[in-house]
Amino acid sequence: MRVYFDHNATTPVDRDVVDAVAAALRDEFGNASSVHYYGQRAKAALDEARAAVADFIGAEPSEIVFTGGGTEADNLALRGAAGAAAETGRRHIVTAAFEHEAVLNTVKALERRGWTATVLPLDKSGVLEPERLRQAMRPETGVVSVMHANNEVGTIQPIAELSRIAREGGAVFHTDAVQSAGKIPIDVRELGVDLAAFSAHKFYGPKGVGALWIRRGVRLAPVITGGRQERNRRPGTENVPGIVGLGVAARLAASRLAPEGARLAALRDRLEEGVLTRVAETGVNGARTRRVPNTTNISFTGVEAESLMIALDLEGIAVSTGSACSSGTLEPSHVLKAMGLAADRAQSSIRFSLGRANTEEDVDRVLEVLPGIVERLRSLAPSGR
Ligand code: PLP
């Protein structure tokens, strides 16, 4: 029996998405910029996907720009907004310490180009306190970027409040919604943001394709140069099959959101309660009340998270020690560190992220093998626990 509990790293591609991508790859080979029949067909496929993504997030199709994934959408948002803000003399950017590397390293790149950055700290809740942003705002703040849901602990941020503060200060607000899309309803206008990044492979779509929502009227400086595709915002011949897959994944996610959310929350809670009651010295990281329904991040005192992950893998259970990009190193998670967790707690924490195909049997299988593994690892620990 195999159990996949790593849906925040990536999700299996939905069968309907696979079929739609295969059909587009075979049949829609035209270049969407061509005026002839083949080009028009490809263009129609892009239009349909654009409408699907717009419906999914409460936007207008003309506000959607397709990208090569979440990282590229974050780059386009931050570099584009920073470039436009700099023209008005605003060269200060604010973000939070628990962001994905796609944002944190882009902010660092802007710093190397003369921007100043404020990286807001968090507390144990993993929820950013809006007051911290209010205090960080300066007259020259041009861009604020705070993620909607965190990838490691799943906490949901008070985006509407944060974006209001940014707007009052005259700054553009970007949210990385890669981990909330498909897990909780998203309405970009209710969130009050200017820019929002999405990635298809986090909601049962293909990898390497995503979208940036750009509120009408928001100016972005060009980031990559080339042709006039995507209204001059993202040059390059469109990845028609990938974009078709994104569109189908968005429609499926929208139709399944409510029942899936409730089902996953119940499974996640069963897992969490089971672990906390059956394994001593365990604790949940981050606020349990403001979370996406599929995620829990649990610390196992005295256990090296990498060893636990490998032992679970040998039992056919896939989990993660944090963001996939930083696993393979023994660095404690920057998210848990940013939340003020001690290094040893951060290094003994595991993320379980559930998804569409998971069942109660999967949860019960994990609860069956986990206590024994933790006991064995603790008995082997150097401290002789
Ligand atoms: N932002 C967040 C919060 C993520 O979790 C990820 C993926 O791990 C990304 C951005 C990057 O998205 P992509 O893998 O599509 O580049």
Structural class: alpha/beta
Radius of gyration: 21 Å
Helical segment count: 13
What general form does the structure show?
Answer: globular
Q: What's the β-strand tally?
A: 12
CATH topology of the largest domain: Aspartate Aminotransferase, domain 2
Q: Could you give me the name of the CATH homologous superfamily of the largest domain? A: Type I PLP-dependent aspartate aminotransferase-like (Major domain)
N→C terminal distance: 31 Å
Give the names of the bound compounds.
pyridoxal-5'-phosphate
Task: Characterise the protein shown here.
By secondary structure, the protein is an alpha/beta fold. It folds into two domains: 3-9 and 258-380, Alpha-Beta Complex (Aspartate Aminotransferase, domain 1), CATH 3.90.1150; 15-253, Aspartate Aminotransferase, domain 2, CATH 3.40.640.10. Helices cover 43% and strands 14% of the residues. The protein contains 13 helices and twelve strands. The strands form three sheets. It has a seven-stranded mixed sheet, sandwiched between helices. Strand 3, helix 4 and strand 4 form a beta-alpha-beta unit. The longest helix is centred in the last third of the chain and has 39 residues, at 240-278. The structure holds pyridoxal-5'-phosphate. Pyridoxal-5'-phosphate binds at residues 69-71, 74, 100, 102, 147, 151, 176, 178-179, 199, 201, 210, 323.
